């Protein structure tokens, strides 16, 4: 899952990036609301964690702008504003969840897992193509009803391809789902992940369009 963290408290943001990355999430951090609005409109993002007390514009205005652009992108508000009125305002404007500071990291992780399951379920009730099936709740892969070991990044890569079955995904678009902006990515990284995946999947399941990208054909 690709997370956009919008938080102006640098110390808190750094701690969250470290924790969420350790949990297998891809995290990009911004301090300003207008930057977040621009990124949501131009970069692939799976969920936004949004502080309300931002230095340039109010977080609720950021939420309003996000909802004007898309109704599907999950937004979790993470803020020191803990009054009932603040929570009602955030939820009424379209936030999917609201967590007040201070908070326990375990609770944040649990809420992210809920949002992730809900998002995957709303997009695809079951990701299955032929004999290949992904369990989006448990990060599991089975081929011909046999469980297959798969890493978190391999799962994320295969999930993107299966969700977009019939469409070619470029190497750059796949990299954005697996790595944050500040991570150095070797030129052949996606090719290596694809190579490992192909060993676990039926022959020809992932096809290469040279110079373009990769595609999984629908069943």
From TrEMBL:
Residues 124-218 bind DNA. Keywords: DNA-binding, Phosphoprotein, Transcription, Transcription regulation, Two-component regulatory system. GO terms for biological process: regulation of DNA-templated transcription. SUPFAM superfamilies: C-terminal effector domain of the bipartite response regulators (SSF46894), CheY-like (SSF52172). Residues 2-116 form the Response regulatory domain. Residues 124-218 form the OmpR/PhoB-type domain. Coiled coil: none annotated. It comes from the Bacteria. One of its GO terms (cellular component) is protein-DNA complex. Gene3D superfamilies: 3.40.50.2300, 6.10.250.690, Winged helix-like DNA-binding domain superfamily/Winged helix DNA-binding domain. InterPro entries: CheY-like_superfamily, OmpR/PhoB-type_DNA-bd, Sig_transdc_resp-reg_C-effctor, Sig_transdc_resp-reg_receiver, WalR-like, WH-like_DNA-bd_sf. The modification 4-aspartylphosphate is found at residue 51. One of its GO terms (molecular function) is phosphorelay response regulator activity. This is Response regulator. It comes from Cycloclasticus pugetii.
């Amino acid at each position: 899952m690709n997370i956009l963290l919008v938080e102006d408290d640098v110390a808190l943001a750094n701690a969250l990036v470290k924790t969420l990355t350790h949990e297998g999430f891809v995290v990009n951090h911004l301090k300003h609301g207008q930057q977040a609005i621009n990124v949501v409109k131009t970069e692939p993002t799976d969920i936004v964690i949004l502080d309300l007390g931002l230095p340039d514009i109010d977080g609720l205005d950021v939420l309003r702008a996000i909802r004007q652009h898309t109704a599907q992108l999950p937004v979790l508000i993470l803020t020191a504003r803990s009054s009932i009125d603040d929570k009602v305002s955030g939820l009424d404007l379209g936030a999917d969840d609201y967590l007040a500071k201070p908070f326990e990291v375990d609770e944040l992780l649990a809420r992210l897992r809920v949002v992730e399951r809900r998002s995957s379920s709303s997009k695809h009730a079951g990701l299955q193509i032929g004999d290949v099936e992904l369990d989006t709740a448990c990060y599991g892969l089975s081929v011909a009803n046999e469980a297959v070991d798969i890493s978190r990044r391999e799962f994320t890569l295969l999930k993107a391809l299966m969700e977009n079955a019939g469409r070619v995904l470029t190497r750059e678009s796949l990299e954005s789902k697996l790595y944050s902006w500040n991570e150095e990515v070797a030129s052949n990284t996606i090719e290596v992940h694809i190579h490992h995946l192909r060993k676990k999947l039926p022959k020809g399941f992932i096809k290469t369009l040279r110079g373009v990208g990769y595609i999984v054909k629908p069943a």
